[in-house]
Amino acid sequence: MKVTRIVLCAAPLLIAIGACGRQIAPAADPAPQPASPAPDPIVAEVRVVEPPPPPPDTIAIAASEVTKQAVAVFGDSVGVPPDSTATRAEEKTWDIDVRSYETHARVEFYVNRFTGEAKERIVDRLEAGSRYEPMIRAKFRAAGLPEDMMYLALIESGFSPDAYSRAAAVGMWQFMTATAKGTGLRVDWWIDERRHPGRSTTAAAKHIRWLKDQFGSLYLAAAAYNGGSGRVSRGLTRYADELEGSTGEDVFFVLAQQDYLRSETKEYVPQLIAAALVGKDPERYGLEIRPQPLYAYDSIRVGPSIPLMAAAKATGSTLAEINELNPHILRGVTPPKDSVYLSIPVGRAEGASAALAALPVADKTPYRRVQTLKGETFAMVAKRVGLTSKQLAWYNPTDGRQKGKLATGRTILVPSPDVVRAARDVPDPAIEIYGSSTVNHIVKKGDTLSGIAKRYRTSVAALKRLNRLKKDAIFAGQALRIR
User: What integer pLDDT is reported at residue 438 of this predicted model?
Assistant: First the structure.
């Protein structure tokens, strides 16, 4: 009689998970990175050698039954044959419910798209995400969230810290300014923490947790993340009769069947499920993912108006390294009035503060000052100092918006070449866009309705009418809609 043989061997991990990034900082600024997730255990592989068709007096045992018995004997560390697509999927588990919906028509559509026409783009995005995956999973786990909600970032931005949408949503998690500030992120002319992978992920975990607690469902939370909690909440009330009897994650799919949610929001959850299916089991779909170096950094606290180039010199780093780790520093220099934490390459924090203090004054001086001449415009000053008007306006935002001639003798800050080289050419972080004709302006200290109206070429009356203001008084941090 021929016998089915079971051969056990150690299967290599497809993606090695290393240590997560470290931060040296008090909890008030960049929160310490959680410990990295432990590496997955080595998976034993069961190879089933099928005999030829048995004679009538022999009992045939299916390969799946052999696998089941092997698991019973050896425990969960036993896997399935890599060439068996039907049973391979049992190797992977998700902490969000993807199995109940993987045959849903829209989920299947996106799985086919991600592994077909969009395959190269998805591979690129998953490779980019491999850099941040341990950090994201650790932060979501610490927030009490399923780690596989990380695939929201795949759908939102492709894991890009520099992503910028038509609605002026920014960063890996595509926060609007007002929402970002509500989670505790700093967003202003000098710093935009929506672009910082670690801090924005902490904020995303907080925001998703709020939504999950509000709706009691991860997929409703995801829909609210995309379409707004108010819209989802109103939909649950309006279609209460249709939703009666639905529970758990089914509620989203029933609500999506109604003519209510925007099409983008209806498609959002199926995309998330498809992204989790493909992203966590890429080999099943023939995708080869090359893991990228893990995102990791240390932190040092530096004072106001310190050029990033000075931080690079003090830590023995290149400007490119410092710039890449600090995408939230917009102008190539720390803010003029605040001490902040800078991210630096791992292992270079010791002695960095002393080295920075010892640098020549010239290395730590970001600007020189010039006086406007009689009859000069801002553009004329920019040309005189060898910069574009936009570059000069980064450091003189109020003057840069002024039209016509400047007052004679006015002081203009002229940044050093190193500061300009490290600056980011990004839109004003205060802008939020709703639809095609409305922007959101976040009021800054010193703003007035007349000044805002002049900037946006509208009137005070129009601003008050659109924002239902009874008085001219406004306050810092207030969001004003502007048509």
Answer: 63
Write the CATH number for 407. 3.10.350.10
Q: How far is CA 321 from CA 70, 118, 194, 309, 316, in A?
A: 50, 31, 19, 10, 10
Listing from the earlier edge strand, what are the strands of the sheet with 432-434?
A: 432-434, 438-442, 479-482
pLDDT at 15: 34
- Which domain covers residue 260, as residue numbers? 99-285
C-beta atoms surrounding 41 within 10 Å:
9
**Domain presence at residue 425:** no
Dist. CA 371–CA 411, nearest whole Å: 5
Query: Is 426 within a domain?
Result: no
Report the C-alpha gap between 87 and 53 in whole angstroms: 22
* Averaged pLDDT of the chain: 83
* Per-residue pLDDT reduced to its tens digit, 339-348: 999 999 999 9
**264 and 115 in a common domain:** yes
pLDDT-derived band of residue 62, with 50, 70 and 90 as boundaries? very low
> Does 216 lie in the same domain as 172?
yes
Q: How many domains does the chain fold into?
A: 5
| Residue of higher predicted confidence among 452 and 22 | 452
The C-alpha atoms of residue 456 and residue 143 are separated, in whole angstroms, by 40
- Range of weakest confidence among 32-36, 275-279, 454-458: 32-36
Look at 66-75, 233-242, 436-445 and tell me which has the smallest mean pLDDT: 66-75
Within this chain, do residues 129 and 68 fall inside the same structural domain, yes or no? no
- Tokens 């490119």 map to which residue? 320
Task: At 156, list the tokens.
Answer: 């939102």
Total-model pTM: 0.72
Higher pLDDT, 39 or 102: 102
Is residue 424 domain-resident? no
pLDDT of residue 4: 37
Helices 197-215, 119-142: axis angle to 10 degrees equals 70
